[in-house]
Write a structure and sequence with these properties.
The complex is a heterodimer of chains A (112) and B (116). Chain A has strands at 4-7, 10-13, 19-25, 31-37, 43-51, 54-57, 64-66, 76-78, 87-94, 102-103, 107-111. By secondary structure, chain A is mostly beta strands. In chain A, strands 2, 4, 5, 6, 9, 10 and 11 form a 7-stranded mixed sheet that branches. A 4-stranded antiparallel sheet of chain A has the order 1-3-8-7, with no helix packed on it. Chain B is mainly beta. In chain B, strands 2, 5, 6, 10, 11 and 12 form a 6-stranded mixed sheet that branches. The chains are: A mainly beta (112), B mainly beta (116). The A-B interface holds A 33, 40-43, 45, 48, 56, 58, 88, 90, 92, 97-98, 100-106 and B 4, 33, 35, 37, 42-47, 50, 91, 95, 97, 100-101, 103-104, 106-109.
Amino acid sequence: DGGITQSPKYLFRKEGQNVTLSCEQNLNHDAMYWYRQDPGQGLRLIYYSQIVNDFQKGDIAEGYSVSREKKESFPLTVTSAQKNPTAFYLCASSIVFADTQYFGPGTRLTVL
Amino acid sequence: AQTVTQSQPEMSVQEAETVTLSCTYDTSESDYYLFWYKQPPSRQMILVIRQEAYKQQNATENRFSVNFQKAAKSFSLKISDSQLGDAAMYFCAYRSLTSGNTPLVFGKGTRLSVIA
C-alpha cells in the first residue's frame, strides 16, 4: 500500500538531548513537509523540501534540522536548542510543491 | 501574508442532521486552492475536499460540499447526514498558486461533535 509512515508514534526525550523523527513515503512524491501542532492550534510549518538535497525553513525552524538525501525520506531532528519541543509532529508530502498535501499519522514528542 | 480564520472553535450536530463549518481567508491573490482537512481522534490529517479558486462550481465529495464565495473570501463546509464518524477537528487551509514557495496556511480548527 502507498502511503506516508512516521516513527515512532510516541517519543520521550530528556532535556538536552537531540532526537530524530522519521518520515518515509512510497508515493513517489517530490515535496515533503514537517509541521508542528500544539493543543488548540492549527499546524505550523517547520521545514519543507521540494526536491532531493534541497530544503527550506518554514515559520518555526529554530531548534530543528532536516535532511533530504533520498526522495522517500525526510527525517526531522529536534535539537536541544528547541526550548519547548513537546508537541505533535506531522509529516506530509505532495506530488510537487504546489499540489495537495497528504499526511502521515504523526509523532507525539514529550520532553521529560 | 495570507490568513485563515475559523470563527467557530466548537460545533455540535445531531446524527443525520446537517452542519456548516465556517472559514474566511484574507488574500490579495486571485489564484489559489482551498482545502478542508479532517483530524479525527487518531490525529492523522485526512483531506476532505479541495476547491480551485478559478472554478465557480462548488466542490462536492459525497456528503461533504463547500460554499465557495470568492468575492466574500468565504469557504464554508457543509456536512449532510452527519455520522458519528464525522466527529473530529476540521481545519480550513489556503494554498497560494502565485507565490511559488508559499506553503499551506491553516486556520486554528473547529471541533465538531456528533450527538447520537
